[in-house]
Amino acid sequence: MSLEGSPTVPGKVKLYFTVSVPGGTKPYEKLFVVGSATDLGIWDPNKALELIPCSENNEVWKGTIATSLKKVEFRYFIGYYMEKECYHKSGEEKILIISQWETFLKPRAVMLQVESNLKNGVCREKVNDEFGFHAGRSRISHGWLHDKHQNEILLRIGGNPLVFFKGNKVVEDTFRIKVTPLDVRYKSYGEESDDDTATEVDGKQDQDNGIGNCVLPSFSETDIAPLSKENPIYKRQHEYGEKFKKGVDYFMFRTQSVSIEHLGFCIEIFVEKTCKDSGKPYYSKKCTAFAFPSSLPDTSGKTQIPLMSKNAEPIGKIEIDYLFVKPLQKLSLLECLSMEKTYIRHWKKRSTVEVGHRGMGDSYTKHTAARENTIHSLNYAAENGADMVEFDVQLTKDKQAVIFHDFHVLVSVAKKNGRNNVNQEQNVEGLKVTDSRSSINSDDSRKSSNDSQVSGVSEQGTDMYELAVKDLTLQQLKLLHLDHVKHKTMNWDKASRVTSDINECSSRHSFPTLVEALTMVDSGVGFNIEVKYPIIQIDGVHECSNYFERNEFVDIILTDVLTYAGNRRIVFSSFDPDTCLMISLKQNKYPVLFLSVGNDTKYMVYKDERTHSSMNAVHFIAGTNLLGVNFHSEDVLKDQSSIEAAKKYGLVIFVWGDELNDKKHVEYFKKVLKVDGIIYDRIGEDETRKNIFTVEKEMRRALFDRITTGKIDSPEKTPQKGIKSLQKFCSITLGDPIYDVDEYKSHRKQRAWSPDTFQHQKDQRHREGKEYRGSNSLSYNNRKLSYSKESS
């Protein structure tokens, strides 16, 4: 819609959108506004209003719509277009890619009845928004994979990636590395320069690296996250790459593509030299590697690519890790992910959230009141006042998402000559096993079973074999007699067994499905869903080899959650860094925490460098813009520097570990380190507590009743009480607007009024270095709520 001369539709208001982008946008990027109005796409980014640049450097963008709505909510986002097939010269099959978008919990809002000029029929004509800044806070996130053709490709380089053939070493321990994508169907990447110093010519390659004569490219630029540097956040690459030191640095590169079957990469190695005549530094390209589609055969893995000299001779190889992240394959879910609501970067600042570990705690190696990871245990924790419950999710052989912690179980299998197995053998989906539940009903038979399992062989004619959960169907897991893998070598008299007694109710049975948890556990308790994907330990041992393909694995779990979660509070977590990235890229609703083991703890460290320490975990999450880190208590009790670093980057901080079973450590993390969440066993057993979300809900309801009956206290008479009441009513979170109390009191009975009415004035005054205050005002800055009364 044109900016000038568009007539105002009778009965409608002409609504203006003007937004500035500090530093401007890239030449190929565009600004969009999406929102609750039809002309804004009803929160569908593919139907959003494309704004028009109004400055030479693309810093200011404008657009208008005509609407009769009383209230319009909206967000800005930056995007660009790609084409899957470059021969579509007209660009009719272009695909929108969301580069960055505003992820405030509450979108921008305008009350047209209040803010519009009734004489002229216009609204917000002179309001200039700033992209990513609203209500006193900044919140910008990387886009998610919202189109069925869209993919994100991650390349990782660390350790000692370059290996040269004997006598061909052309670089030392420090060099510069650059990764550039290309489309193998079209014009070649570029020609090598014969001049060792004339690398400036290579700068033209970015305009000619595979796009050829296409109207639009099939891939994006490649950004770099130097996770080993002080600033690990994704950024554009330097013309001659990023400086890399062998054995110290770890880099992640990301590219998006809508045609991954034709995507390749050029990896260039530069060294810095000094000109003898002028003394000025210059960069010399020493070798190049081309990763063609055949070099990246799977969706994840390691690959070695030949390094070629300037004379096109092989001189060595470079090793890289790679990961292809695909969009959700269920199209109906993909299309339901709108821009209306998002929690991916939201965490309300409140007292520490307390999370029940596996419900009521680890029951297979410790004594607890309920069998871990069961519906009964999760509800038990909810009844005990847990704010959230944590549990582990993995897949069965028939690809059902189930709740169970370990990757393996002990299965009771009948011996060929077992005398006590008559009429107890059954065929469960082709697996001939013994249903031993009937033999453990009495105390005597239970004791006999326990004694035999210590040695791993049953005296009742059965053997205990270790099998992966992924190799058993859901039906087999529910019908077989199973035990915990640690019970094979040790006698755990006080611990519960994996297989329940035959007379126990179903809610106490192991292996409930994720769907059952989402539909049967108290909806008032939040879920911390740990996604269990096996990875390689630093000693080379794989937690569970030949596992499901990552994309398929994550899709199944996300499908269950997006279908059945409703309004439940949910945060995902995983020890696998790639799984964390996949969850964040495949959906735009729920936040993700990275679980860290730390170093020098009782648990084995993983091979992936991002997991080697708590500080590495902080840099990984800060660099990729995820919600936060779930630290291991044993590690951070010895060294709190990683927690301080996480606070510096504005990350949410959770803590897990056996140390939290000691109340003094719980109090230390809550009151001294002030973490956002703690996960521990046997929640609510030592003291009575109430779910914090329930408490907040009851307080809001009580305050609303007082407001509607006119019985709310005046802030002047009872400042602290009045402030807290207004804080709850307005749902003020860290960085929310500074609301004028006098205006609030005068308008609180007008249904059309909203605190957002005054937001544009407040933002403008903020940029001018002023504060928006009335005679009495609320300020929620620096995480503290302050009250002040200015003299007239």
UniProtKB/TrEMBL annotation:
Pfam families: C2_GDE1, CBM_20, GDPD. SUPFAM superfamilies: PLC-like phosphodiesterases (SSF51695), Starch-binding domain-like (SSF49452). Residues 7-133 form the CBM20 domain. Residues 358-690 form the GP-PDE domain. Residues 421-458, 750-792 are annotated as: Disordered. SMART domains: CBM_2. This is Glycerophosphocholine phosphodiesterase GPCPD1.
